[in-house]
Amino acid sequence: MGKYSKEDYEFEKNKQAILALAKEQNYIKKQHPSVWDYELDQFRRQKKVDRFLILGGLCGLISLMISVFLFLNTMYHWVG
After folding, report:
1. How far is CA 39 from CA 29, 54, 60, in A?
2. pTM of the predicted model as reported, rounded to 2 decimal places
3. What are phi and psi of 33, to 5 degrees?
4. 55/37 Cα distance (integer angstroms)
5. 4 by DSSP, 3-state: which?
6. Residue 35: what pLDDT?
7. Rounded to an integer, what distance in angstroms lies between the CA atom of residue 29 and that of residue 35?
8. pLDDT score, position 27
9. CA-to-CA distance for 59 and 49, rounded, in angstroms?
10. How far apart are CA 77 and CA 79, in angstroms?
């Protein structure tokens, strides 16, 4: 019962080779992230930029309204 056939040795050898290859591919995958990871990072960065631009646009509109109000208020005091 303790003896292995040639097929068992061949199977074990192939199994070890496959496990070594899987470990190597996992190591390579950690070194070089997939395209999906790059796209996800780009999406997150773009989302932050969009929020920043929306905030800047809102501040610009508020400052424009304040400027117009102050200008009209000054004109009203000059005229009347």
Report:
1. 16, 22, 31
2. 0.52
3. -65, 160
4. 28
5. coil
6. 77
7. 11
8. 61
9. 15
10. 6
* CA–CA distance, 79 with 73 (Å, rounded to integer): 10
- For 13-63, what is each residue's pLDDT tens digit? 888 888 787 777 766 666 666 777 788 889 999 999 999 999 999 999 999
The pLDDT score that the predictor gives to residue 15 is: 81
DSSP conformational letter for 32: S
DSSP secondary structure letter of residue 2: -
Residues 6 or more apart from 12 whose CB is under 8 A from it?
Answer: 4
User: Token pair of 63, please?
Assistant: 């400052």
Taking CA atoms, 35 is separated from 40, 44, 52, in Å, by 9, 14, 26
Total number of residues shown for the chain:
80
Q: What are phi and psi of 34, to 5 degrees?
A: -75, 170
In angstroms and rounded to an integer, the radius of gyration of the C-alpha atoms of the chain is 34
